[in-house]
Amino acid sequence: MFISTGSAIIDGQRVTCPTEGGHGHVDLTSAFTRSCNVYYAYLSEELGNANMLNTARQFAYNTAFKFPDFNMLESRFEQPGNDGDLAWAGIGQYTDLVTPMHNMLISAGVANGGVVMQPNTLLDVRYGEDSIYNYAPTQYKSIMDGGTAATLAGFMRDTVESGTATSADIGAAVMNGKTLRKSLKMGIERPNKSVGIDTLGLNGASFRRRRFIRRRIGTGCQKKNYRQH
User: Do the domain assignments include residue 59?
Assistant: First the structure.
């Protein structure tokens, strides 16, 4: 059991929680549910640079995404040079970058027992009454085993039921989720918010009011051209 007081100094850098005064006694489950930055920071320091980087790669960070229907911008996890930067990287700050599409793939992978499927923009293509293309589910990669996925799904359900993502508990469906704290590189910060993205910005299309998201953290899908013959 870990006691969170709301801030800590790690390798000369102050790490703070979004909740003033911290979260008190927390373990991994409650730290996830309540979004305890200080817990994440110390856990990242304990795991170390190599383990953090290897796990990020397992989740397809630092990977060039090239899917049949579209290409996607690369999400980034850099290896920090000191424990203070590593602490912030473990929280999701430092120089971490992730696209909304990549976040959706990871969430879908958790729901799918740890297996991420290849994203597709088409179900089928028809010419008159004839179907000339049919979508077939294709596995992209496994990011965790089924037991870990079930545990993480439970954490995410607790977060919606009683943690920082209760606004996502819409009642009509069972929702699992996780809040985030991400600094967008326009000096805009959205601390600890449940984020929903309703468009992907294919082929350079903007989000209109959310255009800054595409420019800075990358929604990042470039749709490929299809011609009807």
Answer: yes
